[in-house]
Amino acid sequence: MIKKNSRVHIYRNKNLRSYSANAFAVSAMLLVISVIGFGQTPAAALHGEVVDENDARISGAHVHMRSRTGEQRSTTSDEKGVFEFRNLPPGPYLIEARKDGFATLASDKILIERGKTRYLELKLKVAAVSENIVVTASGTAQRADRPDRHRESGRTAGALRRRLGAWPRRPVAR
Questions:
Q1: 45: which strand partners?
Q2: What distance in Å separates the CA atoms of residue 43 and residue 115, rounded to the nearest whole number?
Q3: What is the mean pLDDT, run by run of 10 residues, along the chain of 174 residues?
Q4: CB-based contacts of 109: which residues, under 8 Å, 6+ apart?
Q5: I want to staple 85 with a disulfide (CB 3.0 to 4.6 A). Which of 46, 112, 127, 136 is the partner?
Q6: How far is CA 153 from CA 148, 156, 160, 165, in A?
Q7: pLDDT at 36
């Protein structure tokens, strides 16, 4: 009988050892997963609207953002003027918005915080209208370096004075 009990005791020790090994392995895996999870930086987001001076939404505006670390992203506002940047690493960013017919907007430094979503309204001003007029000459070239020449008749100013008489030097008092 002693031998039977010793076998049962040996069998129980083997089960206890395998159970302990499994529990230790599961605990170690959970610890590794939790450390990896805490090591991840939760990403931030930035969303907003592009509007004009009258708060009308501007669709198709190009929004570009860049950080000091070299991170750069671009997007275009949708038909409602809404834009969004996701999965941003935290830190300071500069934002630039542009659209044809509007002046380009360059923002001050915007701080994106870890794990937070930030809202931003970008107001674009209507650009000033500018025109360029190009004059192209055609026909015969005329000299502009002789101001005493009368251009229409080819006579000099002196000849015209002699013909018309002397011009008065002072205005005539009335």
A1: 117
A2: 5
A3: 52 61 72 62 86 93 91 93 93 93 90 91 84 68 55 55 58 60
A4: 92, 93, 94
A5: 46
A6: 12, 9, 10, 18
A7: 63
Owner of token pair 């669709």: 59
Contact 47, 85 (CB under 8 A): yes
Rounded to whole angstroms, the Cα distance separating 10 from 19 reads: 15
pLDDT at 1: 47
- What is the model's pLDDT at position 8? 53
Sequence-distant (≥ 6) Cβ neighbours of residue 96 within 8 angstroms: 63, 64, 65, 104, 105, 106, 107
Pairing of strands 62-67, 44-52: unpaired
**What are the φ/ψ torsions at residue 154 (nearest 5 degrees)?**
85, 0
Angle at 110 between CA 105 and CA 112, to 5 degrees: 135
- Beta strand pairing call for 91-98 and 110-112: antiparallel
C-beta of residue 96 within 8 angstroms of C-beta of residue 63: yes
Measured distance CA(18)–CA(86) in Å, rounded = 47
Amino acid at 48: G
Token pair, residue 87, equals: 């999965």
